[in-house]
Amino acid sequence: MLPVEQVKGIFTHAYMRAYREDIPVPSFLRSFFTTSVYETKTVGIEVERMDEKIAVDVLRGTDGNRNQFSLSTEKQWMPPFFNEYFDATSLDRYDRVFGADPAFTPKTIGYLATDVSRKLIELRKKIERAKELQCAQVFDTGTVVLINGDNINFKRKATSMVDLVGAGGYWSTTTTDIEAQLIAGAEFVRNNGKNGTSEFNLTMSGLAWVALKKTNYFKDNANFQQVKLIDIMMPQKAAFGAGYMGRISAGAYIFNIWTYDEVYKAAGSGGVITRYLPSDTAFMAPVNGTRFELAHAGIPAIIRDTTNAEFSEYIAQQASEYWINNYIDYKAKSHTFEIMSAPLAVPVTVDMIYTMTVLNVENPEIG
Amino acid sequence: MSEIENVEQTRNQLTTNYDVSKFLLGFNSFIDGSLTSSGTTSLLQGMVMGRIDSTGLLVPADKDATNGSQIPVGLCVIDQTILDGITATVRLVNKGKVAESKVNFLDVETLATLIGPANNQRSYRDYLNDLGIELAGGEELTIYDND
Fold first, then answer.
1. Using only C-alpha atoms, what is the Rg of chain B?
2. Least enclosed by CB within 10 Å: which of A60, A294, B20, B70?
3. Per-residue confidence (pLDDT) for residue A277, from 0 to 100
4. What's the rounded Cα separation, in Å, for the pair A167 and A160?
5. Model confidence over A82-128: pLDDT tens digits?
6. pTM here?
7. Owning domain of residue A125
8. Are the C-beta atoms of A132 and A276 separated by less than 8 Å?
């Protein structure tokens, strides 16, 4: 018999609508990277950096100038591995599909699949946030931080990460020569990254943008143009998480300004709402010629092949951005669904990033 | 000789620098000699070697020596480590074209170091030229990635 309180609700209470929060994951920083997948456990690059020497004339009849191409660097990484899972038997729907529910129909199985996929999408979002954070760390410090591994340092040059307090002053001072600071960044990319593109994406926090707009440089010289987002034909346009603020020029260079204030909740109990990029940081990268890769190493997948008499199940490395396994633990009576990924944000053209500390308010966390 | 060096090695990262530059560039001839090591002797490819007049044994060239070994007779062909008391065969290149950037000395000498009597001093470069060793310059156009 139903309790009277439960029955009463049918007549006195109506559920207007269900709301399941669907939090989008920022993709702006990932939009600078090209996604690639590999079957192997480690990934790597071979790099032959070129000097930029010029030919000199020689006397006819003498030997020419002997040149050699001897030096190269190989870099190998084992990307961090992410594995997020949940137990599907914790879903009420599971009991109705495979349990005592007499209405065991394709429709109810479909409901279960929907429930499971919704949960897996949430787990995938966790990993997507980790990828976005990797990209942020590449642009901020050049080091991807691992919790259960050794940090991966891409060895950005120290001169590519400049605290402006010692290079002309912070943007909070209205008289700071910001044009010279932006030119210095562009020239670093030109001289060290060997990239002659004159157009850059300049990403900063809203706080930095506010400070920049109050400077004399901006008011007097910035040549601020009302470029609409529709005019911008870059991957960043379609990405989520940053606002396009317009375009300024400095010296011979053009800068597309983006503000990025996205946050995530840090792992662990009592996770703090944390910025992907510190609010005192701005970075620039040329719009063309960069090679930033979001590489994915192989994922151990459970392969089921009922036609294989010897091994109907086996583990194989899969080249994939994500892979979903599901398996039953007979002892625990659990049905686990897991989603895995082994991503690493790799700045192949490592000297095509220039990062500035533009304010004296280090504020990696908010909330 | 190629050089391979791991400049970074952690659980998640391995960075290796490769140098495939050559020392011997052609038209070379070689001689063998013996070296009796006093202590451990580490010879590097391209090291300038002299010969002691009285024994005929090879030693790294030393500008201050007076036993004849201050005069170069060739350059080491490979890296070689010889332990204390051991007499080993050392192969030298004494003719042909070699990369000047690979020429080295055990001590402070350089190709410009002058040796010989005060009124007739000549540089190591002169002596190597006399042997028939052509020191080839050249420009390296590649650089390592950041490490």
1. 17
2. A60
3. 96
4. 12
5. 999 999 887 666 666 665 556 667 777 777 788 889 999 999 999 99
6. 0.86
7. 4-48+76-141+295-343
8. yes
In our burial notation (b when 16+ CB lie closer than 10 A, e otherwise), range A247-281 reads bbbbeebbbbbbbbbbbbeeeeeeeeebbbbbbbb
Q: CB distance B21–A67 less than 8 Å? A: no
Longest dimension (CA), chain B: 62
Determine the 3-state secondary structure of A349 from DSSP. Answer: coil
Q: Which amino acid is at A305?
A: D
Residues 120-139, chain B, touching A (beta carbon < 8 A)? 136-139
Average pLDDT in the B33-62 region? Answer: 95
- Phi, psi for A10 (deg, rounded to 5): -60, -35
Q: In chain B, which among 2-31 make CB contacts under 8 A with chain A?
A: 8, 10-22
Q: Which chain A residues contact residue B1 at CB under 8 A?
A: none
A127 lies in the same domain as A8? yes
Pick among B13, B20, B27 to test the A interface (most A CBs inside 10 A) = B13
Task: For A207-230, give the secondary structure using H, E and C.
Answer: HHHHHHHCCHHHHHHCCCECCCHH
Q: How many CA atoms lie within 13 A of A47 on its CB side?
A: 25
| A106 lies in the same domain as A208 | no
Which value, in Å, is the radius of gyration of the alpha carbons in chain A?
Answer: 27
Residue found by looking up tokens 């998640």 in the block? B12
Q: Are residues A17 and A132 in the same domain?
A: yes
Q: Do A155 and B13 touch (CB under 8 A)?
A: no
Q: Which residue of B has its CA nearest to A41?
A: B12
Three-state DSSP at B69 gives coil
Subunit contact A78:B144, Cβ cutoff 8 A: no
Q: Could you tell me how many CB contacts below 8 A there are between chain A and chain B? A: 103
The reply to whether A244 and A285 lie within a common domain is: yes
Question: How far is Cα of residue A79 from the mean position of the Cα atoms in its chain?
Answer: 14
Q: Which residue of A has its CA nearest to B20?
A: A70
Half-sphere exposure of B133 (CA within 13 A, CB side): 28
Tracing tokens 């609700």 back to the chain, one arrives at A9
The residue among B6, B9, B15, B23 with the most chain A CBs within 10 A of its CB, best to mutate, is B15
Q: Are B12 and A146 an interchain contact pair (Cβ–Cβ within 8 Å)? A: yes
User: Do A201 and A256 lie in a common domain?
Assistant: yes
